[in-house]
Amino acid sequence: MSHGPDTCLVSPDAPPLLMRRPPDDEWWRGMVVYQIYLRSFQDTNGDGVGDLPGVLERLDYITSLGVDAVWLSPFYASPQEDFGYDVSDFRTVQPEMGTIEDFERLRDALHERGMKLFIDFIPGHTSDQHAWFRESRGNRENPKADWYVWADAAPDGTAPNNWISSFGGPAWTWDPRRAQFYFHPFLTCQPALNLQKPEVLAAMLEELDFWLRQGVDGVRLDAVQCITCDMDLRPNPRVSHKGSPILLGGGPDNPFARQLHLFDRDVPEALDIFKAMAELAGRYDPPKMLLGELSDVDSPVVCEKYTGRPDGLDATYDYDFVNTTPRVENWRSLLVRQRDVMPHGWNFNVFNNQDATRVLSNFGEWAVELGHQDAMAKLLNVLQMTLRGGVVIYQGQELALTQAEIPKEQIVDPWGLQLWPDFKGRDGCRTPMPWEHGAPHCGFTDAEPWLPVAEDHKERAADRQDADEASPLNFTRRFIAWRRTQPALQLGDVRFLDIPAPLLAFERFDDRTCLLVVLNFSAEPRRFGAGMALRALEAPGLAGALSGDAIDLPPLQAFIGERLDARPPADD
After folding, report:
1. What is the pLDDT of residues 306-324, one digit of tens each?
2. Which strands form 218-221's sheet, in the order they lie side by side?
3. Catalytic residue among 293, 318, 374, 413
């Protein structure tokens, strides 16, 4: 098969390559970030919950991966009803997570080793135990009375409108102290802030700046699609009989999917909030990085809107890969559309995290069942690290972990408790890291862990994989190091080739180089008639090989080569 290649790096109908040479202050483009879910990384104080000193204890391991940055999940004071995403005090470290001094030691150690530090920040809501909300709910006249989104009941006594929580059920809860409802896009314990009120936005920016002054290099902003809402509280329309056009999580019957979320997600006023955040981040030299989490929306369109401007966010990541049907042709369609509608925006490629099913139990489930778990894990890592954009690797991904099965009686995730059995929640991707295969709880803790260590994770413990040169762990280390030598993979543009599944092929190019990436997502060998002059690159662990002008791909393998017939695009 042949795709009829052009002889230049950029096809005539391709969107323009915006960032050939990013400014020095855009240091974050093309980074590989390692995401740590603190509760499950390493416990050092014997309470069964991971903590900040635990990250410091495992810093040699993190360094060995060769990543550019570490992202920490929330460690703020919290009632832990949503495990840290319900913040009661932004400036205090949750005692079970450590102390501010532990944070400072970890920050300094990461910087000494040349890594950046990102932290989670939750700007759109607080815990109902936060001092701001306790004051706000007291009455309708206090100084913080309108710091949150409050509304009177409808004439018939029901909620002000039909908005639904992402976790199922109404997004409004009645509070008898004020005789009003308050809005919460997620749990009832997470009331939404009114960031359209200047005093509230200023207060939240002060909380954010507290951590920027502490020396963090960037922040992951939680749920930026609902950072604010329509203050006229207009009801959402229902979806048509065809179902929601948006890729959503929470199980097939989640009632959230029955509405078009026009007024409780992605409203125009959000741009002014991001502008204020960008202005704050830009006061630092170099500027701090703002990475927004997107879901519940048309992610490529919203990413372009939020990041394709100098006064917006720097980048976003989304759940489209996670939530789409796990087929190569679906992924290709997503990627092509993403490139078409994001000529200026920038995203980080995320295949799994603390909110999403592990990718091997999603896209790679069939390969795991056939005994090809390692091969599929490596191939998925190649795909993630060769796509346009940055990369976020979630802890355990480098070990080729699958989603853990958690019995109903051990589920603690409020989302899973709300929607089980249609949706089993997020506990299966949050189980403790398996460090030592022979140690109690795989070396995560000496106590009873907050979630059980998955039995099938024990054989994939880090100590075993460290000693095996062919392991997914060592493959990940080598491929990250090799990617660092390829500027076109870090910062270049992308063009996808029109070839049938199970092959996926695309070119990554800058003004000097054009690379061809071909991946075989099949248990059978495949041949790709490239029809172009190529030089195979010695990318570690890849077994695809040139045979004349064709490429032979073993099962679940990839090829990366440099095009020899390509010329740089003409100067503007």
Report:
1. 999 999 999 999 999 999 8
2. 315-317, 289-293, 218-221, 116-121, 69-72, 32-36, 390-394, 348-350
3. 293
